[in-house]
Amino acid sequence: MDARAVTAARRPVCARCLRAQTACICRWIAPVAPQASLLVLLHPLEAGNAKNSGRLLHLSVAGSALAIGEDFDAEALNGLLHADGRAPVLLYPATPEDRNLPAPPPMPLLPASALRLVVLDATWRKSRKMLYLNPALQRLPRLALSDVAPSNYRIRKAHAPHQLSSLEAAAQALAQLEGDGERYQALLDAFDGFVSQQASYVRA
After folding, report:
1. Using CA of residue 93, residue 42, residue 31, residue 196, what is the dihedral sign?
2. What mean pLDDT do residues 17-26 have?
3. Beta bridge pairs of residue 116
4. pLDDT of 9 above 90
5. 12-26, 80-94, 135-149, 150-164: least confidently modelled range
6. What is the H or E stretch that residue 118 is in?
7. Which residues of 28-62 are buried (b: 16+ CB within 10 A; e: fewer)?
8. pLDDT tens for each residue of 143-192
9. Cα distance between residue 39 and residue 50, in whole Å
10. Taking Cα atoms as reference points, which of 6, 17, 3 lies closest to residue 48?
11. What is the rounded average pLDDT for all residues in the chain?
12. Edge-to-edge strands of the sheet including 87-91?
């Protein structure tokens, strides 16, 4: 182990956000209690990525669950999806590649309080792989954002203008389910602060 690795290993870590205390993001946690439940499925390659927004999303949304994996155990995943008797819906747009997958069922006619929003936190390519590797996800109704606001995720390259960070997408989806966008603005404002913090490390 070289000197830099030893230094990194000794660096104090925040017990809440699991980042080095010098790069702690806890000040950007913006507590919100949505009507719908939230499940974040975080790809392992994103778990240690400083630019990832999934953990900040999880820490901000009351009652949310976060699980790290790519090919999940079917029984464990089913338990996460259907916990508390809620109906899970997958935040994922329809794509031309869907012809290789079973057609998803329609969105259930249920109030937000009866739903669980499932977010795949990964790059586009890795999220497709997660979908293909987990049949339980393929069987979920899909929620597509109806009015996508511009992204402020300037610290990572997007392949299309409509692509959002996981936090931005989840905030917009929860607002769409509830018909109330104002209550999630504080979360999006906090995300702007998080992005600025990460951008400052690149400039330094």
Report:
1. negative
2. 89
3. 37, 88
4. no
5. 150-164
6. strand 115-121
7. bbbebebebbbbbbbbeebeeeeebbbbbbbbbbe
8. 988 876 655 544 445 445 456 889 999 999 999 999 887 889 999 999 89
9. 20
10. 17
11. 85
12. 65-68, 37-42, 115-121, 87-91, 142-143
Query: Which pair of structure tokens corresponds to residue 148?
Result: 């996508």
Enter the tokens of residue 83: 């916990």
pLDDT at 39: 98
Q: Which two tokens stand for residue 194?
A: 């998080």
Q: Are 9 and 51 in contact (CB under 8 A)?
A: no
Instruction: Calculate helix-pair angle for 166-178, 185-203, nearest 10 degrees.
Output: 170
C-alpha distances (whole Å) from 154 to each of 68, 112, 196 are: 24, 30, 9
At CA 145, angle to CA 198 and CA 187, rounded to 5? 40
202 phi/psi in degrees, rounded to 5 = -70, -40
